[in-house]
Specification:
The protein is α/β, with parallel strands linked by helices and 315 residues long. It has one domain: Rossmann fold, CATH 3.40.50.1820. It is 37% helix and 18% strand. The chain contains eleven helices and twelve strands. The strands form three sheets. The protein has an eight-stranded mixed sheet, with helices on both faces. The chain has a two-stranded antiparallel sheet with strand order 4-5. A two-stranded antiparallel ribbon has the order 8-10. α2 runs antiparallel to α11 and α5 packs across α6. The protein starts with 13 loop residues before the first helix and ends with a helix. About 3% of the residues have low confidence.
Length: 315
């Protein structure tokens, strides 16, 4: 069976646009998660970026937004043959979907009304971490859930390889968790990730995880441009981890960063502008969302990754 490309929603209403990006768990387009997981299996032993794995992990990142633990477990059980548990501690949440050979740990991103967790200036303060300095809010998010996550991971088979993923705030938590569990990490793949730490952290992360790390950015996704790089001072600059995969406006995925005018980068890198955009559209203002916000839509990352896999199937 050759996978067929799936279209993005055509001319969605402003209400659908808003739900897709701000309330992804509402699934306003009726997308079927992991629909073809039985036909196209996850490769737990991949040692280089894998398109089929990227699609699975994008699906897991989107599923992590769901609130119904039984529904999430049902999807993994029926469509992927995996068992799944939902872990929630002090607002931090992740799912652990596992089989005999691998586990996918997907961290939930920011919830509606809680975007200040990601964008509040106070959370940008860099703090000393396992290596280098990282965003205080992201470190706290992982710390809140670490004990329960560790207990869940301890219940897995000893040879089980760990794959970490997440979207938005979940991507930041996944990045930190992958580094902390690096000895058992098979890979980490994130979507729409903000900048997580300074150059020391990014350098150590890249040196340890190397080709096991992939970071997807959908065109002008504004969240991938916060916090502003200088906010890590006096500990250097906030720096993205490698390796980036960019999705251009035509949906093509590659290693080339899309053009983004400097003045746009300056605007959307400002905390108040990003937060004002989110709050404005949560309240129902405007007839359409700006590309910098719609490009952050979790489901669009899923569809782009699936289409990239379908386009290159058999290569």
């Amino acid at each position: 069976m050759k996978p067929l490309r799936k279209p993005l929603p055509v001319d969605p209403s402003i209400d659908v646009q808003r739900k897709l990006v701000l309330e992804p768990e509402s699934n306003p387009t009726g997308y079927v998660p992991l629909e073809h997981a039985h036909e196209f299996r996850f490769d737990p032993d991949a040692t280089a970026p894998s398109r089929v794995n990227a699609w699975w992990l994008a699906e897991a990142s989107w599923l992590a937004y769901w609130h119904d633990a039984a529904a999430i477990a049902g999807v993994y059980r029926e469509r992927a043959g995996l068992q799944c548990e939902l872990i929630e501690v002090k607002g931090a949440e992740c799912t652990v979907a596992s089989g005999d050979r691998f586990a996918i740990i997907a961290f939930r991103g920011t919830q509606p009304g809680d975007w200040s967790d990601l964008l509040d200036d106070a959370c940008f303060t860099p703090v000393a971490w396992d290596t280098g300095h990282v965003h205080q809010g992201f470190a706290r998010r992982l710390a809140n859930i670490s004990d329960e996550l560790q207990r869940a991971l301890a219940r897995l088979p000893p040879s089980c390889r760990l794959w970490f993923t997440g979207h938005s705030l979940g991507a930041a938590a996944a990045t930190l968790a992958a580094y902390r569990h690096r000895d058992k990490t098979g890979g980490v793949c994130t979507f729409g990730s903000p900048l997580v730490g300074n150059s020391v952290f990014a350098g150590m992360f890249g040196g340890v995880l190397g080709d096991r790390s992939t970071r997807y950015v959908n065109d002008h996704d504004m969240v991938t441009r916060v916090p502003p790089e200088p906010f890590a001072l006096p500990h250097g600059l906030y720096t993205h981890v490698d390796h980036g995969r960019w999705i251009n406006q035509d949906g093509q995925v590659g290693a080339t960063r899309p053009a983004f005018p400097q003045f746009m980068r300056d605007v959307f890198g400002r905390t108040n502008v990003a937060l004002d955009l989110v709050e404005m559209h949560q309240r129902g203002f405007g007839h359409s969302l700006p590309d910098a916000l719609t490009d952050h839509t979790p489901l669009y990352y899923v569809l782009h990754c699936w289409n990239d896999f379908a386009l290159h199937f058999g290569e």
